[in-house]
Please model this.
Amino acid sequence: MALLQCSGPKRKPGKIMFSLGMVFLTEVGFTWFATSVSAATPPDTCFATTGTTTKTITNYYNNEGNNPANPACSRDVNIPSTIDGVAVSAIENYAFMGKGLKTVAIADSVTTMGYGVFMANKLTSLTL
Model:
């Protein structure tokens, strides 16, 4: 399991707060458990990224290559540890906002997540 740094206001020591848009998970108010999630790793062309030595995901497209003529990108997503052979280390603010995601599994390589990353989705499962 990776240590995640979340942007936003500082919290009291001993509290872990992770924002999923309007849902806040804390060590007190959320039970973590292992489940089998049927998420798929989408093609690299479903992600917009920046960076050459490490990647930051900046957007998730509705269709591969952000082209409506291409196949749709999955709503059950494994965020990969690499894109184009480069390690994914961060997810930018609002990168997956309003994408209709149902399940998300985040690779251990991701250590930083921005604010509102999964805001306005239909998440039923989040695996860190």
Notes: The mean pLDDT is 79. The chain has one domain: 5-127.
